Amino acid sequence: RLNWGGLRGRGVWRYRELLPEPGNTVTMGEGATPLIRLRGHGNAYVKFEGANPTGSFKDRGMTVGVSLALSIGVKGVIVASTGNTAASAAAYAARAGLECLVVLPKGGVAKGKLGQAMLHGAKIAEVPGTFDNALEYVLEAVLSDGRVNNVNYYPLNSINPWRLEGQKTIAYEIVEEIGVPDYVFVPVGNGGNIYAIWKGFRELVDFGVIDRVPKMIGVQASGAAPMVRYWRGLGEARIDNPRTVASAIRIGRPINWFRAYRAVKYSGGEFIEVSDDEILMAQRMLGREGIGVEPASAASLAGYLKALGEGMVDAGDKVVLIATGHALKDPDTLLMNSNVNMVSVSSLDELRSLIVAQEPGI
Ligand code: F0G
């Protein structure tokens, strides 16, 4: 029986009673991320997953998934990725002494993430097309009849249930800190994370810790919004040429579409879309509050602002925005979107004039 009040430690493994227990634990202090109250926008908090060891929520899943991979004695792990999964898998595999093969859409991965995969010693394969093609390659390579057939390289994409178990701890941390929110906004790519978070809340309802789940709002970029399409009854949850500045969620065929659908449907939530301009604006707004997120993560705030504007949520509603990844992940977009002119200074007087006359760069 769960002793919710008697939990010890911090981060993902604080909730070990609610997680699978592999024989080895490969951990780097993931989880226990800050929940930061937003200034000036209703009653909203940002769950800053950029504070994880490799800078995204993926670490919560990898600590569980890679622990399991190590325990079952595989040679390495394999993932298809838009970048963050690759960075996280590479780091945790390195920590565990396992090999890591990452399969990436050529030209579709932000530089920080690519650099991390390289730094941590992953083998990197690029495939033509989008993430969807990369994932298809990986699944073809490791599965037959829907079962893992390759015992050398353990697949750690978000179809892997152990990864999602780790990610559900986002919900536990939120509840411990502020109770049940009214809404949780989550950027959706493959749909694994929104499902994992919902599952975390639901378990706490089952355990009698809380009495309801928050409404889960899945936010997609309008050029890559297969879940919105399906939600509105416009066809299957797939589109052919996903396009968005938010490369992390540039996904046309979400593998966890049904899980994501269930999370949103049974929580009474909604799938919504936001434009790239809205995403970039939200990234700048968070930046000016000291919170540095990558574009995909800014989709949560963009979605919240839209929902406020349309009256879908009230300013008084308690809302959590999941900020999935760190700003440094995508330095190109960061520089493009920052909009600040640098001034050259070649004398002390010029520097003094800046101190007197500096305008905030907005
Ligand atoms: N935000 C960020 C920063 C991500 O990297 C991802 C997914 C998501 C949101 C969406 O989460 O797929 O569970 O719905 N990134 C994967 C990757 C696809 O390969 O790093 P999801």
Question: Topology of this structure?
Answer:
Layout: E1 35-37, E2 43-48, H1 58-72, E3 76-80, H2 84-96, E4 99-105, H3 111-119, E5 123-127, H4 131-142, E6 143-144, E7 147-148, E8 153-155, H5 161-167, H6 169-178, E9 183-187, H7 192-206, E10 215-221, H8 226-231, H9 257-267, E11 270-274, H10 276-287, H11 295-309, E12 318-323, H12 331-338, H13 348-357
The protein binds ligand F0G.
Commentary on this structure:
- α3 (111-119) links the parallel β4 (99-105) and β5 (123-127).
- The strands form three sheets. Strands 1-2-12-9-10-11 form a six-stranded mixed beta sheet, with helices on both faces. The chain has a four-stranded parallel beta sheet with strand order 5-4-3-8.
- The model has no long low-confidence stretch (mean pLDDT 94).
- The protein is an alpha/beta fold.
- The chain folds into two domains: 4-56 and 163-337, 3-Layer(aba) Sandwich (Rossmann fold), CATH 3.40.50; 58-160, Rossmann fold, CATH 3.40.50.
- It is built from 13 helices and twelve strands.
- The structure holds ligand F0G.
- The site of ligand F0G has 22 residues, from α2, α7 and α11.
- Overall mean pLDDT stands at 94
* Count of individual beta strands: 12
> Percent range for helical residues?
25-40%
- Based on Cα principal axes, name the global outline: globular
Give the biggest beta sheet: 6 strands, mixed
Question: CA-to-CA gap between the ends?
Answer: 53 Å
* CATH architecture label of the largest domain: 3-Layer(aba) Sandwich
The CATH class of the largest domain is Alpha Beta
Order of SSEs, N→C? EEHEHEHEHEEEHHEHEHHEHHEHH
Q: In terms of structural class, how would the helical and strand content be classed?
A: alpha/beta
Low-confidence stretches: none
Number of domains: 2
Beta content: 15-25%
Radius of gyration: 20 Å
- CATH level-3 fold name of the largest domain: Rossmann fold
